[in-house]
Amino acid sequence: MPVDLQPGFRMVRTQSRTRLAALACALSAATLASGCQTMYDVGSAVNDGIGSVFTWSPTFLGPYRPDVHQGNIITQEMVDQLRIGMTREQVRFMLGTPLLASEFHKNRVDYVYYLNPRRGPIQNRRLTLFFQDNRLDKFNADPMPRDEEADMLILGAAARTKPRPATSQQPAIPMPDVSTPPPGSN
User: Where residue 142 sits, what CATH number does that domain have?
Assistant: First the structure.
């Protein structure tokens, strides 16, 4: 049986363990709660000084934020195919259903595209079509991307990688002979 040489020593050790456990729980809770705010937001909240230190933090410390695509994807090739005098149905077949069609401006149709990528600037593009007697009268278009650029914007980094060559050749499957005999050759 251990003998206490100093009375009350065992009590002090128990209290310090309890305090240490409470401090560890508080630090864990604070660390978990801080995951809801990115390091960049913390850095931008502090004016100058130490605020710039927080902006270099790696991206894996922040929450995942997917690319946001909204609206109609219109490419330069689609705009080049527009012709004055096309019917409303022809335009809709070529470009798809417009995002904005106002009841107050029945002769105007807007194709709007918004992209907020994970990295990079926000992009807004608009194609406005004006109809007269159900025929395309004029249109205004922002600079639109080419087909390849639009694919890269949608697919992201996956579009930049080249497909891997097949590692093993699959054996060719023999095709059955399905030719029909000429008439009267029975």
Answer: 3.30.1450.10
